[in-house]
Write a structure and sequence with these properties.
Length: 276
């Protein structure tokens, strides 16, 4: 059996489509018959509620695994989709950033917590919060790969230099296995010239690292969380649903075709002042 791929979905920029991507990629991989664990590592708990779990009613969640050694196996929730489990989070997780600061090996907590269950899955997808704080560091220390969603808007590349230099540091100091899986363009709007400008600029900098599949701006993707469902259980015909299924297929064929792409040196990253 192929080893598990642990993939962090990260970008410290807020609202770029991390959670929408983590949720719908996880669901699409499960629909393609992979065994998938979605780890909600954001105190906002959006990936948790996207599957209809009530954050307020959670007794145990990922916070307890990080700070109190509660086994991850005991917090897992099955979803309506065969093969897809969720490790839920709620706002208590914000406390972990503070409580772990003085702990030895604090960046390794998530990796240790996940280790006993990782073998049950083909993919572990981690939804990161919009910061490069201790929670995201835990995700990047546990992961083999990082998927970076980029929103097709002004200043899309702002902050990417910082993210890439953080990834370089993590690869050097914390986790030599970590590679950039790829960049996925989100909220692509073909009626808007700006989307095409962002695509051209991102392709110019990142070339083969950019997924061919672009995620369109699609209202079904923003509606489905309020029904507690990933898009493919809410509207299988929606363009957004199809795009995430295509992304999952492209990912699977990339992963079987060739090894991960090495992280670029931060010296090759776009200038901070890049405008799209
Ligand atoms: N392709 C899309 N089409 C339409 N709306 C989208 C799309 N992707 C995301 N959205 C909406 O944009 C908003 C931000 O998306 P999302 O929550 O996935 O971003 P995020 O990066 O996880 O945000 P945060 O940084 O706060 O965690 C949400 O309201 C979501 O429903
Ligand atoms: Mg999010």
């Amino acid at each position: 059996m192929a080893p598990t791929t642990i993939m962090a979905v990260a970008n410290q920029k807020g609202g770029v489509g991390k959670t929408t991507t983590a949720v719908n990629l996880a669901a699409s991989l499960a629909a393609l018959e992979k065994r998938v664990l979605l780890v909600d590592l954001d105190p906002q708990g959006n990936a948790t509620s996207a599957f209809g779990f009530d954050k307020a009613e959670l007794v145990r969640h990922i916070y307890h695994c990080l700070v109190a050694d509660v086994p991850v196996a005991s917090i897992l929730r099955q979803t309506e989709l065969h093969g897809l489990d969720v490790a839920p989070a709620n706002p208590d997780l914000a406390g972990a950033e503070v409580e772990l600061v003085t702990e030895l090996g604090r960046e390794g907590r998530l990796g240790e917590a996940l280790a006993p269950v990782v073998d049950r899955y083909d993919y572990v997808i981690i939804d990161c919060p919009p910061s490069l704080g201790l929670l995201t560091l835990n995700a990047l220390a546990a992961a083999d790969r990082v998927l970076i969603p980029l929103q097709c808007e002004y200043y899309a590349l702002e902050g990417i230099s910082h993210l890439l230099s953080t990834l370089d540091l993590i690869t050097a100091r914390l986790n030599r296995r970590l590679t950039i899986d790829g960049i996925v363009l989100t909220m692509f709007d073909r009626r808007n010239k700006l989307s095409f400008q962002v695509e051209a600029e991102v392709n110019a900098y990142f070339a083969a690292q950019v997924y061919q599949t672009k995620i369109p701006r699609n209202v079904r993707l923003s509606e489905s969380p309020s029904f507690g469902k990933p898009a493919l259980l809410y509207d299988i015909t929606a363009p957004g649903t199809k795009a995430y299924l295509d992304l999952a297929s492209e990912m699977l064929s990339r992963h079987t075709a060739k090894p991960a792409i090495a992280p670029p040196s931060s010296s090759a990253t776009p200038p901070r002042e890049a405008t799209v």
